[in-house]
Specification:
By secondary structure, this protein is mainly alpha-helical. 61% of the residues lie in helices and 5% in strands. 36% of the residues are buried. The N terminus is likely disordered.
Length: 319
């Protein structure tokens, strides 16, 4: 073969292999917090301005990168919804712009330490890009393959202290990274939606605790540990009731039993913590690893989450 053609073929082959290999991993020692979209939003609120839908569309959503595209479905939705959220609570956005946006560079060392922890624990898993944006006041963060996105106005509400902000951001760095590794839910997980959701979120909290050394939501943890046996009985009662209702399995978000444990932070009772299902899933994940001979293999099994019922059984967890 002509040497030039051979070189061209090898180049194309390497490019194809890289493209099929999935997202490129961020180097833990070079990880950065990308806040350019948040800064674009902040400029729209300078000098006391409250941007309307047209201004937000033109100055924020148009030409936006991957972070905004990931955060738009189910969160920002569109310029009209975003404008309504900003107009309803402009001081919430101004507080985050004034008090937390400038503090992001100081958190670079926290991000890199967490990524070094994950690189040691799961060296084969790619570490995602981190992007900070402003949303419609309804989500602190989400993840897609290769990238996690954090909603600053939710993570930094008015009154947030420097240390509280740091703790929240560390938790998001770690928790959302795990979500970038989790595939779509398996048929087994969809067939048992309460257990599947608990493990999906609980595994992320469990691994976040491993690499940060901090238990997520200490207030929830303190509430739950003193009543763990009762809490597990309540979870199992709701789980079995949902399994007996085909509509609850097909549409769990419409189930009051499901929303008792998830997606209830804006309407939960004062004596029932926000999203207690995360805590239950975390405890099952802890028990699964503690009960396994090969703990690294057990952690990888938790991330794949192919069969939640098998994981629960292997864990031996009974509250």
């Amino acid at each position: 073969m002509n040497p030039i053609k051979l070189l061209l073929s090898l180049t194309l082959l390497c490019a194809s292999a890289l493209a099929s290999a999935g997202p490129q991993s961020v180097d833990p020692l070079l990880a950065e917090i990308d806040a350019h979209e948040a800064q674009r939003f902040a400029r729209l609120m300078e000098n006391g301005a409250v941007p309307d839908a047209a201004a937000l569309q033109r100055g924020y959503l148009d030409g936006a990168g991957a972070g905004i595209r990931i955060f738009t479905p189910m969160r920002i939705v569109d310029a009209k919804k975003l404008a309504k959220a900003v107009a309803a609570a402009p001081e919430t956005y101004r507080y985050a712009i004034r008090n937390c946006l400038p503090r992001l560079p100081a958190l670079r060392s926290d991000l890199r330490a967490i990524y070094l922890g994950f690189a040691g624990l799961l060296p084969e898993r790619p570490l995602p890009l981190i992007e900070v944006v402003f949303g419609a006041g309804n989500s602190g963060g989400t993840a897609d393959v290769g990238e996690q996105v954090i909603g600053l106005e939710v993570v930094c509400p008015p009154g947030t202290t420097v240390e509280q902000f740091r703790t929240s951001m560390r938790g998001f760095f770690a928790h959302e990274t795990v979500h970038t590794w989790q595939d779509d839910e398996t048929p087994e997980a969809l067939a048992d939606p309460l257990l599947g959701a608990a493990l999906r979120e609980g595994v992320a909290d469990y691994l976040a605790a491993l690499v940060t050394g901090e238990i997520p939501r200490l207030d929830r943890d303190a509430w739950a540990r003193g009543r763990e046996a009762w809490l597990w009985q309540e979870f199992e009662r709701d789980r079995q009731a949902m399994l007996a209702e085909p509509d609850s399995v097909r549409h769990p978000m419409d189930s009051k039993r499901f929303r008792r444990w998830f997606a209830n932070c804006h309407g939960n009772s004062g004596d029932w913590p926000c999203e207690a299902g995360y805590w239950v899933g975390m405890r099952i994940a802890e028990a699964h690893v503690a009960n396994a001979k090969d703990k690294h293999a057990a952690i990888r099994e938790l991330i794949l989450l192919r069969d939640p019922r098998a994981i629960l059984k292997a864990s031996g967890y009974k509250g």
